[in-house]
Amino acid sequence: MDVVLIGQNQTPGIVAVQQVGEQTIRWYRREDGKLSTTEVEFFPFFFLADDALLEGFPRRHWLKELAGSNFYRYLAAFTRWHDMWEAVRHVINAINMTSSRRISSYSETDLLHLRPDPLVQYLLQSGVTLFKGMSFDQLRRLQISFHALSHRNRPSDARKSEDRIVAIGLSDSEGWKRTLDGRKLREPEMLAELMHSIRERDPDVIEGHGLSHHILPYLVRRCELHNLELTIGRNESPIKSFSPRGGTGERDLESAFFDVAGRHVVDTYQLAQTYDFSKRSFESLSLRHLAAHFGFTVPDTLQLNREQISTLWHQEPTAVLELAQYEAVLTEQLSRHLSPSYFYITQMCPLPYGTVCRSGSAVKIESLLLREYIRQKHSVPKPQVGVQTSGGYTDIFMTGIASNVLHADIESLYPSVMLSRGIKPGTDELGVFQVLLKELTTRRLDAKRAMQNSDDEQRRHSLDALQSSLKILINSFYGYLGYARGLFNDYARADEVTTSGQELLRTTIKQLELYNALVIEVDTDGLFFSPPDNVRGEEAEDLFVEKMGAALPEGIRLAPAGRYKKMLSYKKKNYALLDYRDRVTIRGSALISRSLERFAKVFLQLCIHKLLQEDIEGLHTLYVSLRKDIMEHRWNVLDFARTETLHDSIDVYEREVESGKRKPSAAYEVAKRSGLPVRVGDRVTYYVTGNHANVKIVENSRLGEEWDPNFPDENTAYYLERLEEAAHKFEIFFEAEDFKKIFSSDDLFGFRPEGIKIINRYKGSFTEQLPPEEERGEFGIWLDEDDRT
DNA sequence: AGCTGTGGCAGGGAGG
DNA sequence: CCTCCCTGCCAC
User: Fold this and answer.
1) A167 contacts A193 by C-beta, under 8 angstroms
2) Which of A269-273, A499-503, A740-744, A773-777 has the highest mean predicted lDDT (pLDDT)?
3) What is the distance between the alpha carbons of residues A657 and A649, in angstroms, rounded to a whole number?
């Protein structure tokens, strides 16, 4: 008999529940320090545990401290009620309210062939309407896309007191129904109209681009200002905000999540961010860039920037309203591309659609595990305390420029390792982990096959969404093992996965070197190498990769992942590639990073292009002309300013600096000195002033917009030093004297590129026996005398 | 209540 | 000058 329990902090009064029969449970209540019991009829379920009160009860695992897991979702409603049937009714109401009148998690085609959860069975018997087998398009009919324009994105904007909603556009699949039509409404009326139209349309889903970072915080704030509540819930309840990192810290709406009773809040900006995280294909996450990326048509008349909008609003408000409408259309189109995969996950995971959209993979995996444990009425483990001690293997064997480079990777390394070695959490007594992993992998391969065999564009798109969302989920099973809050975490198993992965990568390196390939750089599951001379052409290359993969165990596959004309290898995780269509890809934080000033980033980029073309003269010209531009202030503040995000409020920052917990930071100091109101999440652009290269930046920096091109006061010495630092990265590609010649303006005798060669440095091969450590320089026996210290 | 992992590079401040 | 520590950003 399983013991089922309730946590005391959630349930004043009720301390424990014991299942005493198939449909009977026993309540334990604390009254005046004594325990009383009541038996009630119930459907099978689990509850949270309270250690101290369970002495002597049979149990396998405590269900303790579960507040923090998704398990809680099932239980939250129960624990607030003392009367069981009242509680059940409450759950039904809660589900009705928070899950959009449906439990979309349960579809007719139950992905994992699991019987519906007891809760769902019970609800069905109780006559609650469940929308089963609903398609994505059916869902969308109940959806509303939403866009509000406001000026509140930068600290400087806060100075203009005209921040207000300038337009609200509402759209659904029937087209535009309602927009503020230019009537002069005061803000409270405008807000009331917005709330009214949401209630009237009663959407299940509210979408917007930047919904949770800009639009909703803005609306909530404006409502507060007028003593209104943003009541857009199904039950007329106000929107609720909460901190995604737990705790009740200070309220900052910009980083909050929002719950609207009975509706799902979906932010297309967040969806795009997640999409970009895995594919890295967006240059910007603005609606306009994303629209261009997906090939939506954007009329020229609507290509306006924020300042123009502000002006236009005063002159021709209808044009702005058109823009707002169009942005809502773009949001809707964007969502059509990005949200289907989340919808499919919702059909598997016992989580509402909106939650699936905003939560990470670990939450989804855990919800699947819990789903089966609950179905089998089995108790659930506590998270393990500990740390993971290993990760992927990364190494570099050559720096310089290599020609004819192949990229190969071990396909789905970690999932494959887990499947082939049968790795699962030690606490997973029911063995659900492996079953899930296998099933999801099979499903994904099926979807991929079906996609390739389908002629229907629409169907291919939805199958692709399905398989790519499964891929992300599958890849996260490893991460879940090392997740500190995961109920089924297991650090030893996480280590086993990574060390097995390391072994496989090392095996592959040895195999490649055995066949005379030159291995350049490896990282976790991928390898860059030059194949031996007798391997030429794509066909031969693929065959070669296949042959190399033959050394790997059953179930582990080495696959071609790209072929390149040239590769510039700089450091671990830092390289550039030139493909056969002459496109350049740059990777790594040392070569390309948002934190670099624009001039340095562009300089590095152009240098890398020149290096890949082995254009030495071009390098020199680049350096000399940029140096001259800097000295003559021939640039814009955005070329040399740095932009940083303020992650904490000024108050928190000052407190932590005072207590020595953190060091002074230029971005915060600049914000303080400027006297502008600053909020968490704001980005501050600043540049360095002063007259020598070693100034303290914290004390010598100004807000970017204070820079005046007519009286440029940027610290030229400092920025010239920054240029030197950027150029310095290329030192390892040349002989010392050559490097000095290229990156110098001292052209007394004219610059002559003749005789200058790019140097490749080898760190010895992986397999060969290296001389003892002390006889080697950083890059081994191939180092020049000069470089050995 | 809500939160996937490790490895690597660079830059800046503090203190020697 | 140097090292140490922290943060931010990035690769996988």
Assistant:
1) no
2) A499-503
3) 12
Positions 464-523 in A, CB within 7 angstroms of strand B: 476, 479-480, 482-485, 498
What's the CA gap between A375 and A372, in Å, rounded? 5
CB contact set of A544 (below 8 Å; sequence gap of 6+): A406, A515, A517, A531, A535
d(CA A95, CA A460): 33
Q: Which of residues 558-577 of A touch strand B (CB under 7 A)?
A: 571-574
For residue A279, what are its two tokens?
A: 């594919």
Residues A706-749: pLDDT tens digits?
Answer: 888 898 888 888 888 899 889 999 999 999 889 988 888 776 56
| SS3 of residue A630 by DSSP | helix
Per the structure, the residue whose CA is closest to nucleotide C11 at C1' is: A573
The predicted pLDDT at position A11 comes to 35
Residue A94: how many other CB atoms lie within 10 Å: 16
Calculate the angstrom distance between C1' of C2 and CA of A245: 39
Residue-by-residue DSSP string for A357-404: HHS-HHHHHHHHHHHHHHHTT---PPPPP--------EEE-EEEEEEE
Strand partners, A578: A566, A584
DSSP A759: P
- Please report, to the nearest 10 degrees, the dihedral formed by the alpha carbons of residues A481, A393, A524, A406 taken in order: -170
Smallest Cα–Cα separation from A80: which of A2, A27, A9? A9
Instruction: Determine the Cα–Cα distance for residues A715 and A698; give it in Å rounded to an integer.
Output: 13
| Weakest-pLDDT range from A445-449, A473-477, A742-746 | A742-746
Count Cα atoms within 13 angstroms, Cβ side, for A203. Answer: 24
> Which 245-264 residues of chain A approach strand B with CB closer than 7 Å?
245-246, 257, 259
Q: How far apart are CA A28 and CA A607, in angstroms?
A: 73
Give the amino acid at A491: Y
Copy the structure tokens of residue A450: 């079906």
Structure tokens at A412: 């789905």
| DSSP annotation of A67 | B
b/e per residue, A243-272, with b = 16+ CB within 10 A?
Answer: eeeeeeeeeebbbbbbbbbbbbbbbbbbbb
State the CB neighbour count (10 A cutoff) for residue A332: 21
Angle between helices A317-338 and A268-279 (to 10 degrees): 50
So what's the pLDDT on residue A424? 95
Amino acid identity, position A195: M
Task: Return positions of chain B under 7 A from a protein CB.
Answer: 1-14
Going through A588-710 in order, the beta strands assigned E by DSSP cover: 642-645, 683-688, 701-703
pLDDT of A211 higher than 70:
yes
Q: A587 beta carbon < 7 A from strand C?
A: yes
Residue A315: phi and psi, rounded to 5, are -85, -45
**Sign, CA torsion A110/A115/A116/A121:** positive
Which residues make beta-bridge pairs with A280?
Answer: none
The reply to whether A644 Cβ lies less than 7 angstroms from strand C is: yes
Residue A573 CA and nucleotide C11 C1' are separated, in Å, by: 6
Neighbours of A755 (CB within 10 A): 9
CB A551 within 8 A of CB A569: no
Calculate Rg over the CA atoms of chain A: 30
Q: Report which residue type is found at A760.
A: N
Angle of CA points A766, A772, A774, to nearest 5° = 120
Residue A228: count of CB within 10 angstroms of its CB: 17
